[in-house]
TrEMBL record:
It holds the Pfam family PNP_UDP_1. The gene is deoD. GO terms for molecular function: purine-nucleoside phosphorylase activity; uridine phosphorylase activity. Its EC number is 2.4.2.3. It comes from Enorma shizhengliae. Residues 19-234 form the Nucleoside phosphorylase domain. This is Uridine phosphorylase. NCBIfam families: deoD, PRK05819.1. The keyword Translocase does not apply.
Amino acid sequence: MPLTPTPHNSAVAGDIAKTVLMPGDPLRAKYIADTYLDDVRCVNEVRNMLAFTGTYQGNPVTVMGHGMGMPSIGIYSYELFNFYDVDTIIRVGSAGGYADDLQLRDVVAAQGACTNSRYAHQFNLPGDFAPIASFDLLERAVAAARAQGVNIRVGNVLSSDTFYEETTDAALAWKKMGVLAVEMEAAALYMNAARAGKKALCLLTISDKPLTGEGLPADERQTSFNQMMEVALALTTPEA
């Protein structure tokens, strides 16, 4: 029985490239495809979770939305790794900055992803799992950012199951532990990649600062993260 298409993805085998860039917002996926890719074709519209396959500097690339939260990226990344034979997923998303010296639009590479989720419980591990990025991708992302003149911060982020917290106590506690920023998906992506023996990296642009109330409007979140996107796209080309 063929594994593709799936209930969540109408693409068939061969429609998805080995490397996939994943923003949360499917309209941001369309923006990336329209702005950076050549020979683009839409390969999924199920649930409006748009996916586009094209080429970047001659190399096949797919860009696909993953929705909000670990259950959503958990489904899409699992299917891409295990059903579509994807080797690499790079999440390109937004995050709320915790660190005092992070500013709006700064770029963060998530070396590790703390979480308040029980996503790892499914693996029946005899202890706590530490979700981390592929070092190869992380190292290349830092090099690409430096080559492009992008100031990139590397460190721990929090993948949270909750967006609206009752108090700021939890945020302050994570901040005290040196966690740079909060988002909602990296930990699940890193766990799925580890289980599948594949590669993953989460690159983030700071879109707001929840402890100070600063933030970007929704339209700028969709289209103004070009530095992060260009660092991610540099990872889709073969290493020199």
